[in-house]
């Protein structure tokens, strides 16, 4: 009620104040005016002053009430100053004064808690629900995304500053008219018109900044909403979904999604700024026509008719630019996908010496992208020139018709006021032209987003393609169903269920079969991940979700978080249940070795954990969940014998599993079959059988033999291994942890201005001779600006001719010819400079990107471990985009504005030299404001960039774990985390844009003061100046002040965009591996043999970390087969990395007589073949673990199977097929329908269209193709069944030449039992190294203990005998 009364009172006071203005103040503006109430004397002015304070000053300075929250969840104790700012503070953006000046006084790094709290209306929980309900495709049906955005942001915040644009030209006209007539007939005092030169631009600036304030807020919100929408949609699409063009998915989905989120969403959000320019143009066009008609009469219609006739030309050019932009976007997609995949396989590529291929692949994609970027910019220059020339020709035609046809005389007031409007119109057309490219980019991005949201295939239960429900909704299984993986090239896998295949509730169900048969696909089909086809009218598949579902994937999916949070996965923490899970999954001993226990960060993809640890953490997550149904995809394959038996006895047979429905995929049938209640077996041909253990397993001779052999091994399980098994229950250290356990370090942020080295990085890339190049560009721009200023002066000179001679004596044709010549010269010099700059900026972008990629590829394994991929991808997308477009354009515009400002100031000084000091003072004051602004804006921008990467990190983590997230029903958890990260990004982003409004208001006010002061000086203080020269000086002053404002903005914008250069420079200067030298090139014959000699080898995972290998000395003869065995953490994989110098080493390693430390890394690794898993270097977080296992998935590249085996096309198909046959692929897949061929498409990164066993076989085949003298198999067969393993070993014995040395890090002892010698490692030391027979004869030996503890003990002894 009080608000209504206050508002009513303010209106009454304003009306009263308006009455006094009309009666008394208006008269003061006239030469002979007299206030109507002058008899009241000083009381009158007291009344007016009091009314001004009460009606205007008080209402606009009183703080507003807090912005009302729209949701109870948004209520916090903190209030953003913006929410309570007064009207004056809001219009001038003074609410941010305290923050800006505080940052100007301090030069320390900006912390998140120093920022103003987020306004309630900007909080994601308040902002997004309503908007997402409009944009979400299931809700929006087939509606185009743009219409949803317009509905969500339906308030049209039209810019009201357009009419104010004509106040200053009107002031110029009236002032010059007063000077031309010597004041004759004037009724309004000239200072009134002079004041218009101040109030017009100032009020225009206030309204424009208010509009921009709203537009940028919408910009930020739209970008965040689209990111959330993309994530929300991605969490429900089918993982083999089609790509944006409707073709089969052949590219890396993660890279495409990152580009959509990082680039396309940004370009679409930019439309919030662009569309208003286009909407306002017709209004300004009409007002210009009205203003010019008042000055130049009918001639203006002739000029405008010409302009309308020319309109199709820029539209045609725009269509060409749009086509180029679409192609450019596709090329950018290809580059980002290439970088994404390169990062996913970079460790493998470095060990294979394939860095050159990665660089060349990315460079090729980058060259394609830049070729279209160059073409786009050249067409943009053409478009800009067309849009510059059309209004200039319009002006010439108008003046020609006015003087030659209408026989009118040009006056200074007519020329310079009309020129101001023509200049304003030209600026607006240029603004439209400049915004055409962002508009086209935004439209292309909008189409891409819309295609992704509407055309990607959703899971069945999202696209209303539901299956028929089974009679009993609690049923788990299939009936007459067929499932396919589509979008996988020629490898079209099909899983078919004829009749009913059901799983037993409340018991353990085994899913068994050979590698690649489709065991994992059965689980994924149940989860709805595969495409379902009914083959009968009663077809169905069903997995009840009411009691919850948990899932442990074969490829362990680990979040970049602490171990505890990975296990909890959003569930409430129950200490008793949590400890039971750790105990049953055998994790307590592992946690006791971490300095931070379960609070240790595991890094991206769990890089800080061994394969066995990742498998057990993934299992613990599924077991800790309260879900009734538990799906486990081969969790035992990565575990040692005693660990696997512990998990089976304590976990699968424990209280936490009892009573739950478990579907367990496994190869370890002997160990698990005693617990099984039901078995489903699938063959390589796709035949499925089901029943009890007796019905299915014992009726199959192969499976039965494995069970019988396994039982014998378990009966012989030795006591010393049982005692070792008990070490798994050693409790973790119960003392309070003093270390954080962080692996991923906080991203560094620079302080202060962007350093010269960052700018130097760009300048040196412009040209081979950057100084000469820059001077040439500056000279051309200076000439263009000087000629443009001469054009304005020449128009005044033309008008002045009518003052000294008759109109008939003035040669209109001559003046028009000279003016047209000046126009052509100006355009020629400008276009020459701009074109040079485009080619230079393209070259600089190319060089910076190449150096960035070279730096990442040459980085150390340790740096890759501690650096999240999202940080690298942010630089490869947002920062590269900034350098290519925003920064290059900003530097060009800054150079142009600087030179033109200097030219205009010099022009003013010719006619008003005394105004040099005020001009310099205004410039310095503007510079001061710019410095204060930059001290706040730059750290805000840096913090924006840093806070942006976690949003993309959440994207990549979610996409990598799509199946697990959906299985757990954890979509909302990831969406909530995304909203939290968006809020974190909002906090620096919104103040960052508001600081732009702050500086804009202040510089515009300074510009208005300067122009008005110059006008007053020329009218009142310099009576000898002609009207023409006064008009020229005022025009130059208006341009100078506009350029002053633009210069401050452009300088600050350039330094802010240079933050991207700074970030790229930091990643160019990272820690690198040793560079190649001429001394590191071996003789041409090397290596002639596989001889290996190691002396005193020590190694650690970081330069300052503990040693993981201790003084190893041994020799291997050429052609020997050496097996390396040992328990978890013994140093097996560390030794293979040390041989390849992937980790810091000391001592000597001689390969065929040459020390590996003297060889170039590329040469060394190209001549040693390893089948690596995901390689990582452990840091000092785990000082007690001296090595680690690498049981992660084999890395493959996107492309065909042929390109994965032979990336450089060095071998024919027969050789490649022989390698596949040797690795066991053809023996594995037989004559089944799901066979792979050399032309089969492989998806890199996740490679989700192949089983893990198939990927391992391909990795082995790739190693065989290389024919190196030294072959290392690092954990070569953890996912391969015994049959396939036997085929591999047999072919390896026959395939390798007699001089090829084979070193195998064994996961199964059967792999190495017939090797020449076996090395046993323990805690990074060699404890045994001899032939298998000698080691088995050694009483109490470690190797003998491992054999005796194996499930296939009898077979192992038989192999020796």
SSE arrangement:
Elements: H1 2-25, H2 42-61, H3 81-84, H4 87-92, H5 97-105, H6 124-135, H7 137-140, H8 145-152, H9 167-180, H10 190-234, H11 253-269, H12 271-296, H13 299-310, H14 312-344, H15 346-352, H16 355-405, H17 412-455, E1 477-484, E2 494-502, E3 508-512, H18 519-526, E4 531-534, E5 540-542, E6 549-552, H19 563-568, H20 575-584, H21 588-592, H22 611-624, E7 629-633, H23 641-652, E8 661-665, H24 669-672, E9 678-682, E10 688-691, H25 693-696, H26 701-715, H27 719-726, H28 756-766, H29 770-804, H30 812-857, H31 861-866, H32 869-911, H33 916-960, H34 962-968, H35 971-1021, H36 1027-1068, E11 1092-1100, E12 1107-1116, E13 1121-1125, H37 1132-1139, E14 1145-1151, E15 1154-1155, H38 1161-1166, E16 1168-1171, E17 1199-1200, H39 1201-1205, H40 1213-1223, H41 1225-1229, E18 1241-1242, H42 1252-1266, E19 1270-1274, H43 1282-1295, E20 1301-1305, E21 1317-1322, E22 1325-1330, H44 1332-1336, H45 1342-1348, H46 1353-1360
Parallel strand pairs: 3-8, 3-9, 6-7, 7-8, 13-20, 13-21, 16-19, 19-20
Antiparallel strand pairs: 1-2, 1-4, 1-5, 9-10, 11-12, 11-14, 14-15, 17-18, 21-22
Helix pairs in contact: 1-2, 5-33, 6-8, 6-10, 9-10, 9-17, 9-36, 10-11, 10-35, 11-14, 11-17, 11-32, 11-33, 12-13, 12-17, 13-16, 14-16, 14-17, 14-32, 16-17, 16-30, 17-29, 17-36, 28-30, 28-36, 29-30, 29-32, 29-36, 30-32, 30-36, 32-33, 32-36, 33-35, 33-36, 35-36, 40-42
